[in-house]
Amino acid sequence: MVSVLSLSAVHAATGGEPAAVVQVDIAPCLAASAADDMNKANAACASVIDNEKTAKADLVKALIARGALLARHDQVDRAIADDSRALLLDPTLADVFNARGELWLKKGDKPKAVQDFGAALRIDPNHEKAKANHKSMARELERIGAQMAVAGKPSFNCRSAARAVEKAICGSRELADLDRDIFGSNARAVREARNPAEARALQREQDEFIARRNAGFGRPGYDLKKAMQERLRRINGVDGY
Questions:
Q1: What is residue 239's DSSP assignment?
Q2: pLDDT digits (tens, 9 = 90+) for 138-150
Q3: How far is CA 113 from CA 72, 103, 134, 140, in A?
Q4: Which of 42, 94, 39, 40 is nearest to 67 (CA)?
Q5: Phi-psi region of 20 (alpha: psi -120 to 50; beta: other; left: phi over 0)
Q6: Under the phi-then-psi rule, with left for phi > 0, alpha for psi from -120 to 50, and beta for the rest, what region is 154?
Q7: 24: alpha, beta or left? (left if phi > 0; alpha if psi -120 to 50)
Q8: Whole-angstrom Cα distance, residue 104 to residue 82?
Q9: What is the pTM of this model?
Q10: What are the pLDDT digits (tens) for 40-53?
C-alpha cells in the first residue's frame, strides 16, 4: 500500500521549508508602457508575458499595455497579436475589440475592422468610439459595395448598344469604367456650373465628344482608350476630383 504524504509532512521529512509563491510584478511593464518607453517596456512586459507563473488578470493587463504601446509606434501586426491574445483570455473587453478594429483598419482590412467594432458594441452598446467607428465603416463598406455593383458597367444599357463603339465599350471592363467615370464627372461639372449658360456649354462639349468618338472609332489611328482618358482629364481639370 502506497501512503500519500501531506505537503507539510514531506517538508518535515526533508527538513525543507514550504516553497514561497513567486509574485510576478507587472508594475514596471505598465509604467514603461504608460511612459511610452519602448526599450524598457520590451524587457519589462516580456518578463511578465512570457512568465508561466503570471496570473491571468495580470497577463491580460500586460498584453493590453504592450499592445497599446506597439500601436502608438505603428507596429501594427505585433499590436494585433497582443490584443488578440488578450481577447482570447478575456473576450469581454470592449475597449480592446475597438482598439484591434482600428488596427485592422490601418492594415486596410475593413471587414475585420467592422467585425471588431461590432463585437465591442455587443459587449457595450454605449461604447462611443466603437459606435462612431462602426457607423463610419458601415457607410464605407456600403459605398464599396455600390461601386462593386457597377464595376465594369458603362453609363448606358449594353442590351441596347447598337453602335460598334458602344459594343466595344461593353466588351471591355476598363473602357466601361472609363465611360461611367466620364458620364459621372460630366454630370457633376454641369450640376456645379456657375450659371445655366455655362452648364449648356459643358453639356455641348460632352455631346461633341460623343459625336467625335462615334465617328472616329474604327478609323486608322483612332485610339478609343486614349480619347476617353483625355476627355476625363479635361472634365476633371489638372487636379481632378
A1: T
A2: 777 666 666 666 6
A3: 18, 8, 8, 12
A4: 42
A5: beta
A6: beta
A7: beta
A8: 13
A9: 0.54
A10: 999 999 999 999 99
